[in-house]
Fold this sequence. Notes:
Structural class: alpha+beta
Order of helices and strands: EHEEEEH
Helix content: 10-25%
CATH superfamily: Hotdog Thioesterase
CATH topology: Thiol Ester Dehydrase, Chain A
Number of strands: 5
Distance between the termini: 15 Å
CATH architecture: Roll
Number of helices: 2
Amino acid sequence: MPIQVRFTDVDIYGHVNNAIYAELFDTARYTYMKQILPDADPKGKSLVLVHLETNFRKQIVFGDKIYVETHISKIGERSVGMSQKMINEETGDLHADSYGVLSTFDAALQKSFPMPEEWRKRLEAAD
């Protein structure tokens, strides 16, 4: 997924602020998952982010053309592990990589639930 680096993403040091990386990864993760599980509903049953770790490899500056690769790396009984990479479109440089875990979540009950078999099949087929 291509990512637009906005002027407001850049901090006083002239590079994209580290907090923005989480937003960019989140945007790509949400877009990816919405394609796979369009029936997931934040007001009903869905997946929510419960863990996120990021390695900052190389700074991003305003004007860089960046895209995010997103892959499912693990499917558990109630969770999905996702690996992401932020890559420079022009140079191929890796700017950051991230690993996140999403858990099933029932908004009405306020707790996790077993992964529906239909969701599992779609998740397995996606990668």
